[in-house]
Write a structure and sequence with these properties.
The chain is of the alpha+beta class and 161 residues long. 29% of the residues lie in helices and 19% in strands. The chain has five helices and six strands; from the N terminus they run H-H-H-H-E-E-E-H-E-E-E. Strands 3-2-1-4-5-6 form a six-stranded mixed beta sheet, with helices on one face. Helix 2 crosses helix 3. It starts with a helix and ends with a strand.
Length: 161
């Protein structure tokens, strides 16, 4: 059953949740990963169906794996008017990563009006996201004061603040 779902590109987390909900079986996602890697050591191919093909490393302690933006400004430093949501033109940006980490959606939401703009990007690169944000906001350039990104940094008037 686990192998069947792995071959359908289900993640170990999804399989664990499905087993708990549908079959009332409690199998942790870590145990499924251990099973997959044991299968790999025996010459099996289950590991090829995992979404993440990175080399497995034992984790010690916590470490933020995301990239760090140099000289970024904290979200706590943005103007208080942004927090109050009393003007139009303060935007929040985020990305929604697709299956296989190949494509993504760039979402922009205006904080006061809740207007949401979406754009599909074919590659998950900073340049692709920047181009998508620029094209989405170009017609509304008079109504852009700040952009707060998911990484908790903010941009002011289209330039890095």
């Amino acid at each position: 059953m686990i192998e069947e779902h792995l071959c359908q590109e289900w993640s170990p987390e999804q399989i664990s949740g499905w087993l708990r909900k549908e079959k009332d079986l409690r199998v942790s996602h870590e145990r499924i990963y251990q099973y997959v890697y044991a299968n790999q050591r025996r010459g099996g191919t289950l590991y090829q169906h995992l979404r993440c093909q990175k080399q497995r490393r034992k984790r010690y302690g916590k470490r933020d794996r995301r990239g760090h933006i140099p000289n970024r400004r904290s979200i706590t430093e943005r103007p208080s008017i942004v927090q109050s949501r009393c003007r139009i033109g303060d935007w929040e940006a985020d990305t929604i990563i697709g299956k296989g980490h190949q494509q993504a959606l760039v979402s922009l939401t205006e904080r006061k009006s809740k207007l949401t703009l979406l754009c599909k990007v074919e590659r998950t690169t900073a340049d692709a996201a920047k181009a998508a944000i620029t094209s989405l906001l170009a017609p509304l350039s008079d109504h852009v004061h700040t952009i707060t990104l998911r990484s908790c940094a903010y941009y002011h008037l289209g330039q890095r603040a």
